[in-house]
Fold Ferrochelatase.
Amino acid sequence: MKGVLLVNLGSPDSTNPKDVKKYLDEFLMDPRVIDVPFWLRSFIVRGIILNTRPKKSAEAYQKIWWDEGSPLIVISERLQKKIQEKTTVPVALAMRYGSMTLKKGLQELVDQGVDEILTIPLYPQFAMATTETIDVKVEELKNEFFPHLEITSLPAFYNKPEYIEVLSKSISEKLENVDYEHLIFSYHGVPERHIYKRDITKNHCKIDGSCCITPSPAHEFCYRHQCLKTTALVAEKLNLKPGTYSNAFQSRLGFDPWLKPPTDRTIERLALEGTKKMAIVTPAFVSDCLETLEEIAMEGQEIFHEAGGKDFTVVPCLNDRDDWSEVLTSWIDQWRIADVKTAIA
Ligand SMILES: C=CC1=C(C)c2cc3[nH]c(cc4nc(cc5[nH]c(cc1n2)c(C)c5CCC(=O)O)C(CCC(=O)O)=C4C)c(C)c3C=C
Ligand SMILES: [Fe+2]
Ligand SMILES: [Fe+2]
């Protein structure tokens, strides 16, 4: 029998700094997130970051936490329920980090008699730190605990017309009656090194003005290309005028070079250059979370106001929108009757 496992990033169990520390330890010790040798990662994460960040992050989580729990998890649960109401195959939910483990999610499906699973990493764009780490962990769990399972993973869907359609609709609905001068597409950043590491051609990615718009097999695993392409497809669909929108990358951690330009500096620059009304959308996140609710909607807005900006409009993530749950259900239903790669190609 077939079944589906939706997978998102995860959150701490609570906003208590102890729980945040435990969560950050698991997250940042993942070699696909901080991709340096174990001894160095251990020194950076356990020797430096975990001494100061958990308290600061816990305060940030406290600002956005809901009565029901972490917004990212609550929203993912709502999405899962909506999809389950629409399809006949069992649909479970798991997180890459934290208590809602991938192992529990796989077991939940196995307990219902499932032996063929489609995992859906809830990330539109491929990254080592998101899609890849989920796929690798699922493979490890299969080998160790569930050797009988047949598992397929849904590839990044940044350029699928159905996804672009709902993302564009979510933007146009929010901005329908909003007068804005500039729209920022803010994606979670990654270190530039991650882009070079996943260049399967070994020489395409330059992180310059042209590599990501020059066709190449490297783009299958190029996070930067996939972000820029998401924006380009939405801009085309919404007929956005050149100069009225731009890309930026948020949430930088550490001192290595990350993808540019940084969102906070871009917001500040726009305001300093005289932009009074701006809007921002965060297409790397399908659910609102700490990075959208605190870093963008709170901190980003503050930066804009302090630099002289006035109206700051945030487009919500797709969350549990009906049309988004319908798109995911349609991909699931296509997989039910065919191979997923051919079904959504
Ligand atoms: C959308 C895709 C994401 C990528 C790519 C990504 C990469 C990445 N993240 C960190 C460090 C942190 N990220 C944190 C929170 C966080 N990150 C994502 C998504 C991506 N991360 C989400 C959805 C969230 C929010 C989780 C929630 O509970 O709401 C955090 C924790 C918060 C904080 O202390 O700021 C850290 C740390 C790195 C190093 C990285 C590198 C590739
Ligand atoms: Fe992150
Ligand atoms: Fe590129």
Remarks:
- The longest strand covers residues 2-8.
- The chain has a mean pLDDT of 96.
